[in-house]
Amino acid sequence: MTYNRLDLLKECVSALLNQTNVVSHIVVVNNNSNDGTKEYLDTIKSSQVIIYNLTENLGGAGGFSYGLKQAVEETSDEYFWLMDDDTIVDLKCNEMLTDVAIKLENKFGFLASNVRWKDNTPTNVAEVTDDWPDLIGEGLVKVKTTTFVSFFTSRDNVVKGGLPISEFFIWQDDVEYCLRMNQFGPSYFVKKAIAIHKSNSKPGTFLVQNDTVDRIPRYFYQFRNNMYITKHYRGNKKFRKMIRVNLVDVIRVFVKSKDHRVKRAMAELKGTLSGIGFDPEIRKVGDQVD
């Protein structure tokens, strides 16, 4: 999935085309970029690369949902590997992930890569389970959630479990999808499957009170989508607690923010209130979209 990061897209595609375990297809979803991405993609003539140039930006969640749906319907591939354009995978990454999937006899929810930032420090760190060391001797750590920075799952899981929720638009769609995939088996962090996340800033270093002003609107989706996840996966008691905690936290954000205090606090308030009734349906492959 790509949006206005042409140079990174080229690097990402190159890494995929040069995997030691050749990928059958690369599905590129151009989320209505205006930086020359479409023109670059038009120069790719390989049947291995399937390109969709969208006429509107569907957000990260919408882009992943659309691309995964097309990949399942237009190919017969056994596995699907999701990533943004700023994910640069090691040339053996697909080999490492596929080998683990085969050893597990496809009895897994998802596999997560060993993601590093540009300075080689860990980033996009997966959330481990209580019994995380079960397969540590094989370089596998059992996890609950990860991100769509090199996320690997099977065709069977996607067909049975459905697609990422496009209405999330941005943020937390990957967390929800991980929790959903876990119903099909344990999920693992794969130590030898290396990926570099070339994001502008290291994920997790910014919060609504200190992020740049242009990114503040995104936090509406974070708070709203977290409400959905809590309601559906952690129960009504924790859902009600989250409402109370968030409403109190609005005051903290207003007090602690470095600037644009009202805008920052309102992102959390509006996201929380919207999340109370936010309940989009889960679409399956083959469903018709209105």
From TrEMBL:
KW Chaperone (keyword) present: no
Entry GO MF terms: glycosyltransferase activity
Domain Glycosyltransferase 2-like: 2-103
Keywords per UniProt: Glycosyltransferase, Transferase
Signal peptide: none
Gene3D superfamilies, alphabetized: Spore Coat Polysaccharide Biosynthesis Protein SpsA, Chain A (3.90.550.10)
Pathway it works in: Cell wall biogenesis; cell wall polysaccharide biosynthesis
InterPro entries (alphabetical): Glyco_trans_2-like, Nucleotide-diphossugar_trans
Keyword Glycosyltransferase: yes
Recorded family membership: Belongs to the glycosyltransferase 2 family.
Name the record gives this protein: Glycosyltransferase
Organism: Paucilactobacillus oligofermentans DSM 15707 = LMG 22743
Highest classification ranks of the organism: Bacteria, Bacillati, Bacillota, Bacilli, Lactobacillales
